[in-house]
Every structure is written in structure tokens, then in C-alpha cells.
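Chapter summary example.
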Amino acid sequence: MTKFLVDTTENLSPGSLKNITAGGKEILVVNVNGNFYAINNICNHAGAELHEGTILKDKELVCPWHSAKWNVETGELIWFPQKLKNQETYQIVVENNNIYVEI
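The structure predicted for these 103 residues follows.
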């Protein structure tokens, strides 16, 4: 696995969403109550960029277009009228206040 630098913990405060391209993938990194998670940034329903959505305190990521919800820790679909695939998630590593995503 390769580690890609995302940002520092100071720059990604609780409730923040940050999209990056790493290893040819569009990835969304979020801070939920001081815990960092990485999930695929593109909605698998209609292609919305999820960094334009909302992150809720209970680890729910809400799509900005049609309100699909995924768990940012597991990538599991929480709610949508149709069956959608779960989102891919990625490992986060925090070292010396730097946030890395592993691909």
C-alpha cells in the first residue's frame, strides 16, 4: 500500500470534508468528532461529488443530489429508495499531526 498525504489535523477540523485524488481515485476524507475516515468521493447512483454533501455526527455522509446516505467508516449504504452498492473505504493513518490515506 502507498500512503498519500491529505492534510494536517489542524486544517481538517471536526465536520470538515476534503476531496483528494490519490492513486487515480477520487477520495473524500472527513473528520467526524476528531476521527478521520476516507471513502470514495463519487456517488455510485448519479455521479455526484460527495464532498459537496453533508457529514452528520453519527458518521453518515449525505449525497448532495438525491440524499443517499452512507456510513463513512464502513462504506455501507444506510438509506436510499433503490439498492446501491456500498462505497469503497480507505485506511487513514495519522502521524505527527499529518493525515495520510493508504491506497
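To summarize the output: The mean pLDDT is 97.
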